[in-house]
Amino acid sequence: MFKVTQADIEAAHERIRPFIHHTPVMSSQSINEMVGAELYFKCENFQKIGAFKARGGINAVLSLPEAERKNGVTTHSSGNHAQAIALAAKMAGIPAYIVMPETAPEVKKKAVAGYGANITLCEPTQQSREETCARIQEETGATFISPYNDYSVITGQATCAKELIDEQPELEIIIAPVGGGGLMAGTALSAHYYKPEMIVYAGEPEGAKDSYLSMQAGIITKVDKPLSIADGLLASMGDKNFEIIKALVKDIFLVNDKEIVEAMRIIWERMKIVIEPSCAVPFAAILKNKEVFQGKKVGVILTGGNVDLAKLPF
Amino acid sequence: MFKVTQADIEAAHERIRPFIHHTPVMSSQSINEMVGAELYFKCENFQKIGAFKARGGINAVLSLPEAERKNGVTTHSSGNHAQAIALAAKMAGIPAYIVMPETAPEVKKKAVAGYGANITLCEPTQQSREETCARIQEETGATFISPYNDYSVITGQATCAKELIDEQPELEIIIAPVGGGGLMAGTALSAHYYKPEMIVYAGEPEGAKDSYLSMQAGIITKVDKPLSIADGLLASMGDKNFEIIKALVKDIFLVNDKEIVEAMRIIWERMKIVIEPSCAVPFAAILKNKEVFQGKKVGVILTGGNVDLAKLPF
Q1: Which of A106, A175, A96, A165 is nearest to A137 (CA)?
Q2: Chain B contact for A33 (CB, 8 A cutoff)
Q3: Could you please report the per-residue DSSP string of chain A?
Q4: Which residue in chain A has the smallest CA separation from B307?
Q5: Nearest CA in chain B to A264
Q6: In chain A, which among 291-310 make CB contacts under 8 A with chain B?
Q7: Backbone angles phi, psi at A144, to 5 degrees
Q8: Which residues make Cβ contacts (< 8 Å) with residue A5, sequence separation at least 6?
Q9: How far apart are CA A69 and CA B39, in angstroms?
Q10: A309, B310: Cβ pair inside 8 Å?
C-alpha cells in the first residue's frame, strides 16, 4: 500500500547503523506525575549532529547511485537537515552545497561549515530556498535531497520510531512534531508496521499549522508566512509525506509559542537535557491535552538539541 | 587503614540502590577530539534530585538508628545536599529541617520545599550556617547530617565512582570537583579499593581554593570569603575528608569562573545535557591541563544539573 515498505525501513536501519547513535529512551517520574501518563522520550537530541535528521540525511546520501552522487548533493534547511547532509557528504567524500535561510541560528550555520560544506544564505521563505537550490543544481550538477519530501529521507527517519518501539513494545500512543513531515511520516510508518494498534499523533506550532489545515481540508494547504519559535517546523508539508500522514495519523494538536517554551523549560529542568524549541512541541501538545494521554504509555520523539545558548527564550 | 572500608561501600550501595538511579556514562566524540583523550562522563545530573548528593544523603539517613532519626534530621547546604536530605527524610517518614544560605538559587529552595522540608534561611557564611543548624538541633532534637564531613555521607558518595569503574574498568584517571570534600573523598576511596593504580585528581574553583591550600600546607587551611559561580563548592574541607584526600588525591587543579562557564557551555552544546557550574569544574580543569590527560581514559564525575534557567551565565 505505501511506497515505503517494512523491508525498506529495515534495510535503511542496517545501512545507517554504523554512522548513527542508538539513542537512549529516558523517562522522568516527576513529568509522569505531572501528566498522569507514562512518557518514554526517544532522545534524538543525543543523535549525531544533535538531531534525528542524521538518520534521513545519511540514508538518502548513502542510497544514491554512484552516477548521481559524484557531483555532490545540495539541499535547503534551517539547520538540522543541513548538518545531516553536510555530515553524510563528508562521510561519502563528496561535496555538499547547503542553502540556509539567513535567519537560521548561528550555532547551526557554524556546525554546517564545520563539516566542510559550502553554505549559501537565502531569504527565509520557501520560494527563496527552492530557487536558490535550483540554481545551485544547475551550476554544479549536484543532486537535490529534499529535507523531507523524499522516500529515502522518510525511510531513514522511520528508524527512530522503530528503535523506540523495539525498546518499549508496550507503547499505546506515539507522538512526534510535524513540519515538512519527514519524521512524522516515518514515525507513522514504523507504528503501522511494528505496532499497528498504536495511535499516532502529531504536534504542530499554531504559527505554522499547514499540516493541521491540510488534514482538515484533505488536500495540501499552505500557510502564507509561517512563524514560530519552533524554527525547525516552518517548512510546508510535502506531498509524499501527506499521503502517509493522512492515512495513518489520527490527529494533529496545535500549540502556541508560549506553550512550546513552557514545555521546553520543564524538560530542561526535570530531565536535565538540552532540547530545541521544535523538539518541545509534542510534549507541549501532551500538556495541553492531558485527557487524551491519561493512563497511557506514550512514546515521544525528542527531535533535537541544537539551540543557540546566547538566545534562550527563558 | 581508612575508616570507610570496601565492605562499607558495598553495603551502602545495596542500601541506597532501590532509591537512586543507576546513572548513565556518556561520551562525546567531539569533546574527545578537543581534549585528545577519552573522557567518560558519569552523569549524576540525571540522579534523583538532579545531583550525586542523593547517594550520600539517603545513605546517611537510612543508616541512622531509630533513636537518632525519630526527631528528624537537619543540615545546612546551598542546595543539592539540602534536597538530598529532604528527599531521604520524606522516604524515611521523618521531619527535615534545612538551613539554606539566602543566596541559594531559587530552583533549589523550591525543590527542597517540594519535598515537604522546613526551610530556615541564613547568611551565606560557614559560621551562620553552623550556628543556625546548632540552634535547630537544640530546639527540635533533630540529628545533624553534615553535607560532607560524615563517614556515611562519604560512603554514599563513593558508590558513584564505584558504578563508573564497574562500567569502565579500563579508566586510568578519575577526576571530580572538591568543595567540602565528601564526593572527592568517596571517589578517591572507590578508586583505591576498585582500581588502585588509577590516578585521582580534583578540580576546585580558584575563588574557593581551601582544599588546594590545605593540600599545600598539609593541614586544613580556610579561605576567608569563598566566592565562585560554582556555588556548590564554597564549603570548607572537612577533617574526615581531608585525611582521605591527602592520602589518595594526586593533585588539585584550580580553575577560574570564566573557565568554568566555558567548560559548562561546551558540555551543554556538545553533549546536550544540563549541568550546573560546580559540575563543570573537573572538565574545566581538563581543558586547562590537557597535557596531563593526553591519550588517557579519564572518568569525570558530572555532579549535578540544578541550574536556575532564568540566571544562566551565557
Answers
A1: A96
A2: no
A3: --SS-HHHHHHHHHHHGGGS----EE--HHHHHHHTSEEEEEEGGGSGGGBTHHHHHHHHHHHS-HHHHTT-EEEE-SSHHHHHHHHHHHHHT--EEEEEETTS-HHHHHHHHHTT-EEEEE-SSHHHHHHHHHHHHHHH-PEE--SSSSHHHHHHHHHHHHHHHHH-TT-SEEEEE-SSSHHHHHHHHHHHHH-TTSEEEEEEEGGGTHHHHHHHHSS----SS---S-GGG-SPPPHHHHHHHHHH--EEEEE-HHHHHHHHHHHHHHH-B---GGGGHHHHHHHHTHHHHTT-EEEEEE-B----GGG---
A4: A269
A5: B309
A6: 305, 309-310
A7: -80, 130
A8: none
A9: 36
A10: no
- Which residues on A lie below 8 Å from B312 (Cβ)? 309, 312, 314
CATH node for B54-144? 3.40.50.1100
Provide the CB-side half-sphere exposure for A146 (13 A, CA): 21
In whole angstroms, give the CA distance from residue B285 to residue B273.
19
Exposed / middle / buried, residue B225 (Cβ in 10 Å: 0-12, 13-18, 19+): exposed
Q: Which three cell numbers stand for residue A272?
A: 536535565
**A98 phi and psi, to 5 degrees?**
-110, 125
Q: Which CATH code is given to the segment(s) B6-51+151-311? A: 3.40.50.1100
B311 in reach of chain A (CB within 8 A): no
Q: How many beta-carbon pairs under 8 angstroms link A with B?
A: 44
Contact criterion met (CB below 8 Å) for B216 and B201: no
pLDDT tens, B138-170? Answer: 999 999 999 899 999 999 999 999 999 999 999
Q: What is the dihedral of CA A108, A109, A113, A115, to 10 degrees?
A: 20
Task: Give the tens place of pLDDT for each residue, B45-90.
Answer: 999 999 999 999 999 999 999 999 999 999 998 778 999 999 999 9
Interchain contact, B272 vs A269, CB within 8 Å: no
Q: Which residues pair with A43 in a beta bridge?
A: A302
What type of residue is B146? Answer: S
Domain with CATH 3.40.50.1100 in chain B: 6-51+151-311, 54-144
Q: What is the mean pLDDT of chain B?
A: 95
For the domain spanning A6-52+150-311, the CATH number is 3.40.50.1100
pLDDT of amino acid A111: 85
Residue A200: name the closest of A255, A254, A245 by CA: A245
Q: Residue A78: is its pLDDT beyond 80? A: no
- Chain-chain contact of A272 with B274 (C-beta, under 8 angstroms): yes
Of A52, A312, A44, nearest in space to A180 by CA = A52
Q: What's this model's pTM, rounded to 2 decimal places? A: 0.93
Q: Do A305 and B272 touch (CB under 8 A)?
A: yes
Q: Shortest CB distance from A273 goes to which of B272, B310, B312? A: B272
With 0-12 / 13-18 / 19 or more C-beta atoms within 10 angstroms meaning exposed / middle / buried, residue A288 is middle
* Cβ within 8 Å of A, B 68-127: 107
For chain A, where do the domains classified as CATH 3.40.50.1100 start and end? Answer: 6-52+150-311, 54-144
Over residues A142-162, the mean pLDDT reads 96
Conformational region of residue B21, where left means phi above 0, alpha means psi within -120 to 50, and beta covers everything else: beta
Q: Does A312 touch chain B (CB under 8 A)?
A: yes
Q: What are phi and psi of B101, to 5 degrees?
A: -60, 140
